[in-house]
Amino acid sequence: MLNELNIKISEFLNKKIIEDFGVQVNIVVEQPKNPEMGDVAIPSFVVVKAAKKPLVEITTKIKEYLEEMDLFEEINIVGPYVNSFYDKIKLSKLIIESLDFSKSSEYKGTVCIDYSSPNIAKNFSIGHLRSTIIGESLGNILEFKGYKVFRINHLGDFGTQFGKLIYAYLNWGDKEKVLKNPIEELVSLYVRFHKEAEINPSLEDEARRIFNELEEGNEYYRSLWTQFKEASLEEFNRIYKLLGVHFDEYSSEASASRDSNRVLSLLKEKNLLEIDDGATIVRIGDDMPPAIVKRSDGATLYITRDLEEIHRRYSEYHFDKMLYCVGNEQKLYFNQLKRVLNRMDVPFKDAVEHVNFGLILRDGKKMSTRTGNAVTLSDVLNESIRLALKHIDEKNPTLAQKEEIATKVGVSAIIFNDLKNYRENDYEFNLEDATRFEGQTGPYLQYTSVRIASILNQCDFDKNNIDYSFYNNNNFFDITKKLDEFSIIIDKCINELAPNYLAKYLLQLSTLFNSFYSKEKCLCEDIVERNTKLHLISLIKEVLDKGMLLLGMQLVKQM
Questions:
Q1: In terms of pTM, does the model score above 0.70?
Q2: Which of 211, 247, 326, 348 is the most buried (most CB within 10 A)?
Q3: 474-504 tens-digit pLDDT
Q4: Residue 313 forms beta bridges with which residues?
Q5: Domains identified in the chain and CATH numbers
Q6: Shortest CA distance to 112 belongs to which of 400, 323, 420, 375?
């Protein structure tokens, strides 16, 4: 509503300036840096210059125009600015009556999101959390605003790492151990390969040879690869279910590899392929290394397979945007990918966008499966649930279904702890801090929602029998303005592809409620006053719950 009012004010003032001074201007409605100066500031410079009239005459006229609008309770001229305070009662009524938190029915376009994409035969590490959670929340937010979203999990089930894994399994693996505990045993073999390769670098060449044979269809290697893949998917799906994450499609590097000759043929038709030292490349400018689409040994690369996948997805989904939720370290790669698409001059050449993000650090260091310095997401989630249960036992030991509630709180704590950080930044992971019931945490949001629900459950209210004069009080008015920001925040999340803005907004709204509750008695004797207060906090709960669901968190009724 405030955005619409700013436009309305600007249009009204521009019209009056034309009528009285015969000049066309574009007055910008600003917010004073100091809130004590007003809610709205109108600079007069552009009018003074265009109308060639004295400053005092122009500012006086602007003040008169604003008085005509009957929206403000106080209007002051401060030098070249006309600063105004809204009539809190009138504005609050406009905002409250216009609030709409329902899903948009207007189609905005089609977006494919490629996210999560864990590697087969490795534990789902906490390092994969960011892609999974950012992608899922962006999908929720885009759908809420009217976009058709297709969620794609492109599994890392092909590449040289499988040559390494097969070599390790054939030389050091124990079939019985692998069958009994597949993921942990395969990870152990992968780590051992890298330690052995440090002593004997020729193992890297042997791994590349094995992968090349795998890609060409070696039946034995393929049977091993299939076993590794099936064991991994079983574990991944368990994690996704716990996180509440879902996909419309599972694609794979392997299938893209088998079909990569199609995109290579297309590149050849457009005369974009060159041979350089035995490798097949596409030149993409002097400021960037060429894109290698086939090694000298004939093996394809990530970019070859991604080019094939993009073409397939466009053919199937006709997307307007193709988002890739992948870490900061792949910026160069995605710049190369976009350059190749531009050289191919495909209709979707400008549709690809890299939703990059920073690292989750442990003791200031990157977690890596290769070195064994990794934490599995399963272990983190289990520990978070345990800590949530501990907090519940301390605060509400007789609570029914504690384990189920602790699971929702613990998992949501991990999700929120990630999303409250701006995606491009690294952050240090601290599980104890993430699961606290106070501070900037997911449990704090859930607790605030539960607290509001407990108040509302004690008494019915009539939202049609309220008194807006209470909104002259800043305790009410500040909340109203914050509720009005919800749609602006959602748009900002989409424009910047960054869910942290919604996470921070929900924290601010929760803080405003808790401050309000400490100052105002909600369950008061006066019926109209009680209706007014309960109606307001019900709107807070509606936004909190909607926002948490969009972030991918789970709601609880008790804590």
A1: yes
A2: 211
A3: 999 999 999 999 999 999 999 999 999 999 9
A4: none
A5: 2-86 (3.30.1360.70), 109-366 (3.40.50.620), 377-551 (1.10.730.10)
A6: 323
